[in-house]
Amino acid sequence: MNNKAIATPTRTKEILKNYGFSFKKSLGQNFLIDVNILTNIIAEAGIDDTTAAIEIGPGIGALTEQLARHADKVVAFEIDQRLLPILGETLSEYNNVHIINEDILKADVAGMIDEHFEEGQKIRVVANLPYYITTPILMKLLMDRLPVDSITVMIQKEVADRMAAEPNTKSYGSLSIAVQYYTKARVALNVPKTVFMPQPNVDSSVLHLEMREEPPVHVDDESFFFDVVKATFGQRRKTLMNNLARHFKGTLDKEEIRSRLAEVNINPQRRGESLSMDEFASLANILYK
Ligand code: SAM
């Protein structure tokens, strides 16, 4: 086994030079060049030799290699065709890795899981995501209700903070509710820019999402619930009443909204950022009637 990890500055530069590879900023290509950070990601993700891992964007294989060493099997989706011959070489000694040359946003992930993984196997998504499509990728994985146990991803710090935010904080918003409806979210690590090549312009964090078996609240209609949450945060500095009245203009008047809020004990002068997930559920259910 070649013990020289891919994720070092020297080896990465050497691989890029051998293939005359130039980074595409438009594909969010910032490769990891620090093995310690990868070791931490693998630990935070809870990977062991029984795990099936899904990676999004393997690049030249820095994280894929560590997954191959620690997991049972790895399937990685990479959009950039230029990386395929490189991965063919850098990962040649691992027979438990399969690369799919596809856009993750268009891929049939459920079909891939059926084809490649054993029934009942723990499935974990682990990735250093292309930051330009962080939210679409995560929302696709969550809303498709795939049989995945957890998602551990390097993303922009500000987005990680928003996804894991608690009520009454600056970062709390509709994204926090959307993510926490499907998962238990925590920021696992904050990561310095120096572990990437090239260094990104923004700060990064590793976010860990543990899938919930059931949502934490009952909602009568999910898409109505998410619409109400979005409307409530529409203009952050406005009250609940103002944001709801604007959203339901023509359907519910202010008096009706006020009386429904009273039924669930929510003061219309509050702001969206003070509402818990439970309160959002009561609010949406009473407005849905
Ligand atoms: N995993 C590698 C690492 O940590 O060094 C590379 C991570 S880099 C931040 C993001 C990777 O995602 C790149 O390899 C890029 O080509 C790939 N990528 C970008 N958009 C993608 C998409 N829509 N589907 C699949 N892969 C994508």
In short:
This protein is of the alpha/beta class. The protein has helices spanning 9-19, 35-45, 62-70, 83-90, 109-116, 134-143, 157-163, 174-182, 222-232, 240-247, 254-263, 277-288; strands spanning 31-32, 52-56, 73-77, 97-100, 123-128, 150-156, 183-191, 196-197, 204-211.
Please, could you describe this protein's structure?
The protein folds into 2 domains: 9-211, Rossmann fold, CATH 3.40.50; 222-288, Helicase, Ruva Protein, domain 3 (Orthogonal Bundle), CATH 1.10.8.100. It has 12 helices and 9 strands. The chain has helices spanning 9-19, 35-45, 62-70, 83-90, 109-116, 134-143, 157-163, 174-182, 222-232, 240-247, 254-263, 277-288, and strands at 31-32, 52-56, 73-77, 97-100, 123-128, 150-156, 183-191, 196-197, 204-211. The strands form 2 sheets. The protein has a 7-stranded mixed β-sheet with strand order 4-3-2-5-6-9-7. Strands 1-8 form a two-stranded antiparallel sheet. Helix 6 links the parallel strand 5 (123-128) and strand 6 (150-156). The termini are far apart. The relative contact order is 0.11. The mean pLDDT is 97. The protein binds S-adenosylmethionine (SAM).
What are its keywords?
alpha/beta; 2 domains; 9 strands; binds S-adenosylmethionine; 289 residues; 7-stranded mixed beta sheet; two-stranded antiparallel ribbon; Rossmann fold; Helicase, Ruva Protein, domain 3; 12 helices
The biggest beta sheet reads: 7 strands, mixed
What's the overall geometry? elongated
CATH-level-4 superfamily name of the largest domain: Vaccinia Virus protein VP39
The bound ligands are:
S-adenosylmethionine
What share of residues are in beta strands?
15-25%
Provide the CATH top-level class of the largest domain: Alpha Beta
Q: Helices and strands, in N-to-C order?
A: HEHEHEHEHEHEHHEEEHHHH
Structural class comes to: alpha/beta
Low-confidence stretches: none
**Strands across the major sheet, in which order?**
4-3-2-5-6-9-7
Assign the CATH topology of the largest domain: Rossmann fold
